Description:
The protein is of the alpha+beta class.
Amino acid sequence: MIGLQRLRHTLVLAVAALTLFSATSLTAQEVLTNESLVALKKAGLSDSIIVSKIKSSQTKFDTSTKGIIGLKNAGLSDQVIEAAVNAGSAKTAPAAAAPAAPAAAATPAAARESIVQLIGGKSVELVPANASLEFSSGFFDSKSELVLRGRKAQYRIADKKPVFYSTWSPNDAPLVKLKPGSDHDDRNLKISSGSFAPFGGSVKYGVRSEDKVDMEAAERDARGLYKLTPKEPLPPGEYGFVLNYGMAAGASGRVYDFGVD
C-alpha cells in the first residue's frame, strides 16, 4: 500500500515537472528587439532574411520616433524598419475585428497622419521620404524641383490599381508620377517655373496637372479617412503622394513614395 502511494506521488511530481518544463520552454522563446535587428545587421544578413525573421518571431520593438531614428543610424534599411513598424502595429491592433468590415481594422486612426495601402485586408504603411528642394536658373528662366534620392523607391507593388487610405484629401496630398533624374541617381518633380523678359515675367508654383495621377472620387469614411484609388491602372514607374505644404505645393519635402513593377 505504501509502495503504491509512493508511486502515485512520483507520477504527480513527474507530471508537474513536465508541465513546468513546457511552460518554461514557451516563455523562453526568443523575442526580437531593436538590439536584435542591429545585431543581425552587423552579422551581415540580408534585408530579406531579417524581414523574414521579423515575420516569423515574437517581437517587442521600440517604434517611437527615437527608436526608428536609432535603427536608421545603425544602418538598417527602410524595408527592415517598415517591417518592424508593421510588426509593432500588429501587436497593438484590436484583438477582435468586425468580420463585416476588415478594412476598418486594417486602416489607421484618423487622428494619425499617415497613408497606407490596403492589401487583402491588411495594411502597409508608407514611410515618407525626405526630398530636397533644388533650384536652377538661366538667363531667361528658372525652375525648382523636389528631388528624391535613388532611381527607385524601396517600397514596390505589383497591383496596378492599388487602394490607399489617407488622412489627407487628394488635393492636400496628390498622387504624382516622378521622373528619373537625367544626370544623377534620383527622382524629380517640378514644382515651380518662371520666365523673365526685359519688361516683366511670370512664375508658376505647384504640382503640375500633367504630373498628377487622376483618381476616382475620394470617399471619406466615418473615421475621416479618404479612400484613394487611381482611375486607370498605373503603368510601371515611380510614384508618390506629395504633401502640399510650404511656400509652394510640395515644398514640404515629404513624399510618400512607391514603385509599380
